[in-house]
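Re-run with default settings, no changes from the original entry. Doing this only to confirm the output is reproducible before filing.
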Amino acid sequence: MEWTEEVIQKLKRLRELGASPVRAALALKCNKAVVKAKARELGMPFPHLRTQRSEHRIKEEAARAKAGLPLISSASVLTGLRPDCAI
C-alpha cells in the first residue's frame, strides 16, 4: 500500500472518529495489520479490543442509567440473560 498524504489524513480522521482497525482497513481498502502498523508509526495506535469494550460498556451503562433503565450485570452478560427482558 502506498501511503500518500491523502491516505494518511484519511487514516488520521478515521482514528479520531473512533473507527476500529477493521473499519479503517475497509475504508482504506487494505489489510488490518497494515493499518494498525501505520497508525502505531504515526503515534496514534488503535486501543486494544479489551479497552474498547470496557469503554463501550461504561458508556452504555451511563446511557441506561440516564434513561432510567436497569443496568446490565456481568452475570447477565455472561449467561446471555438480560434483566429487562421477560422470559
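The helical segments are 5-16, 21-28, 32-41, 49-66, 74-79. The chain has a mean pLDDT of 85.
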